[in-house]
Known about the structure:
The protein is α+β, with helices and mostly antiparallel strands. It has 14 helices and 19 strands.
Amino acid sequence: MSEDTRSDTSAVMVTPPEVDTANNDFTTSSTSQIPLSLPSPLPDSTILRLSALYDPNITAKILRATETCLSNNYPITAYPEYVPQTGPSTGLYVTRTASFWTCGFFPGSIYSLLERLLGSIWSEPLHAMAHRTDTHDMSFIIQPALRPRWELLGDERALSSIVTAARSLHTRYNPVVGAIRSWDVLDQEGVKITSLVSDFLVIIDGMMNLDLLFYAAHHSGQTELASAARRHARTLLQTNLRNESEKGVRRAGYGGVLYSTFHVADLDPQTGDLKERCTAQGYSRDSTWARGQAWGIMGYAQTFAWTGEREFLEASCGLAEYFLLRLEQSPGCVERVGREGERCGRYVPLWDFDAPIEDEENPLRDSSAGIIAANGMLILAQELSARGQHGLAVRYKDAAVMLVEDALAFSLAEEKAVLKLEGGDIRVEDETPGKRFDAVLKNATANHNFRDHHRYWDHGLVYGDYYLIEFGNRLLKMRLA
């Protein structure tokens, strides 16, 4: 979420929690209106370690993928999704149909790069997507590309499509349930939930779509969009979050409740009652799927940024603390000696924190989960700092930087690309001839659930790269880099 165009919540009268260093518990701030105060800039050594965020390699890879994926694909009907690390297509983007939920991230990466220094052919097909009511993934599809077109270029058609997409998403809202339907169907081996009459599926990922509703409400005055977003966030507090503190789980320096996440909850659309919980992409019903936890951190951080409501702050903080705790508790085999001789890998999450490790030499991870969580923590840092909660702000800023720093040390693809200028033309070459990998990061896992009909893992992922670029942009906007 763009930090300089979100709703102005810095002047909202709230009492957000902070850590009491005396008793490690939540206390209440009496401050009502705090001028914007950002966490301190990063030390030069950390900025140096994060320099890969701004390396021309990223721009070169995005430009080359833009050209490659346009081949036999114009008008555009398919978008880059993942990059295999093994097999006949090693290093090359595999595309998915334009209707797939990841379509917005590649054009979003293009526009995120433009924020640093425009790509309209990639965003053009997204306008038609704004009318879709068959999916809840509207924020993922629409916002990465069309929001920058509005904010950077003043493209009113882009803003119109954003509002239309929010209205389309709102058609999936059920006021009895108090939530937006995520999926119409969950069909896996041994799991078949297909009724729109007796079932209502909500997933933790759906927290990320609320930002679209808040943004559209802010720009259009359609307050029912924001009201639905608030209700949805509150419903998922009850249906998709597990209170780990009730089990005695604690993390040093934090006195609030720690939360893990259920991936999927099935509710009764007639009564709103919870019917069952399960997973679709995690290891099991009661495991903590790393990317689902990360979606929750960022989704609740965004919701707090828009509303200033304490319960959403506590949820995001509790999810973040549990995420960090599980990283700290991961077995020693997650670490290795990196390219610079340092130990790295502890903060590149296992794909599911509770899944058995099948290969101790190369534990299966999801680098995208760590990058998404880092973005969520950076949003928390800014919002907390704006409200005078500097201790927690620095805590989450430092954690976010640590996650990205470790991802760059462990998962940054060694196969880099370079830009060459010849005769006024820019072209992209492999830094090492014959060594090509289209994604910026490796070690992501889209879906390793053993019941799913389409499993693919250990690869580059378009949204992992998108949120990596966005993290660099957030640091710039916060004047931390």
